[in-house]
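=== Given protein ===
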Amino acid sequence: MPEAVLTLQALWESAGAVLAAAGVAEPRREAIRLWSDLEQTPTARAMLARAESVAAPKAERFLAAVGRRAAGEPIAYVTGWTGFRHLELACDRRALIPRPETEELVGRALALVRHGVAADVGTGTGAIALSLATEGAYDRVIGTDLSTEALALAAENGSRVGARIEWRQGDLLAPLAGEMVDLLVSNPPYLTAAELAALDPAVAAWEPHLALVSGEDGLDAVRGLLDGGRSVVRSGGWLALELDCHRAPLVASLAESLGWREVSIHQDLFGRDRFCTARWEG
């Protein structure tokens, strides 16, 4: 059992040794980040306190979290929260962990349309819908998901953030029946089962497969959004999708064949073809 006289620096060193033995990259840095995220304190502030002693209950909690991380669990699930743009969101195995690329998707969506009605399909933690609601000037924002568990997590985050979102359960565009939106945004599943199996175990073994895999070629959800979106997006409205970079040309061709206008593929910060935007003229 950790002693109360253990300093934060010594605790980090102990945690780093455990993480290193488990093969975690940059174990000391990971240990410090884990501590900062658990305590929800800036890393710089934690570094200033590294010579201070840590009470036994807090040290035990931290080392238990280190054990979970060493077993391969993603850090966002271990700490129970993740940052997304300006938000702090509860995060657990009910939903996919939001990525930096999806933050870029939100930025592109906001640059297209900031008013009217916006819908986020496959909302997961609610990251996209909540960002649109808090950064845009929409009359309404709708967040949908097939998973009732993910939708419950999104609603919890909505309550924490204080944003008014219409949460709806159902597959793809089914929850939007009868709606006309000015902006349709989605980070849909876009992998094949084989691609999922080849991913880092931190993803494949922990994150919900429902949010990752989409048919034999990975395009089932994207096809559904492009096809069905024609009856959901009002004339002059926009669609913004996150994509698998290897399928971007196929998605652009499909969008054009279905009548979408101003179809564009955009790169993420790593230079990968990651986003598709398109305008509908009904």
